Amino acid sequence: MTHSARDFYDSLAADYHRIFPDWDTSITRQAATLDALLHRELGPGPHQLLDCACGIGTQAIGLARAGHGVVGSDLSPVAVVRAAAEAAARGVRLRTVAADMRQLPFRPGAFDAVVCADNSLAHLLTTGDLEAALTDMRRVLVDDGLLLLTIRDYDEARRTHPTSVPPQVSHDADGRSITFQLWHWHDDGEHYDQEYFQLVPAGDGWKVRVRRATSWALTRDQVAAAATASGFTALTWHTPETSGFYQPVLTARAAAGPGIVPGHREGGFPR
Question: Smaller CB count within 10 Å for the chain: N or C?
């Protein structure tokens, strides 16, 4: 059974921060790591960025605070509303819009870089959907613009087919929360249904919240092939040991295409 990614993230938006031991610390740490990659690839900036799977703002808020012009989009309208509110609460300007990454509502060449983090690509369940998303990311980039994408280390998971992931304990104003996942693999050995459990404080006990989503355990070779087919070149994988990010990171450059002058960004964001 395939579970809707939008329903999953609409439901999870209020609790998403609980997957991190300390969400604000993660915002700062991830922004520093991604900003270092942006600086290495594009120079010091500031740059115009699209975070096309921004969720509640984990990467977008930190990158905006680092001085970049950031627009956040996400399939979940509930998540982008929270992202905008969380940014405002921290004194950060972040424009947000609910949008499917396969049909981004921005002009060609609107951004210097597109960020797609936190394993978001795994919710695209077919090669057609994967290439459609990457092709639209290429479309909204300037020529030679940067794609910065992060995904789980599914190469190992495809060999071992784990049925769960270790629990995470977080602390916030409400107390401790525990998050863990169970994975139910499909017969093809590539897709799996995820049961996402959160135990959150409720008086003297716990309340259990369960969400479900379907994911595609994409290998690095599959992601690279789709990115190449979608108009990206100079693909480079960065391991957590070399990048400092908690997932493997792919950087790639937007190949030159018709209608966009290299180095020129179209004015304005919405179509």
Answer: N
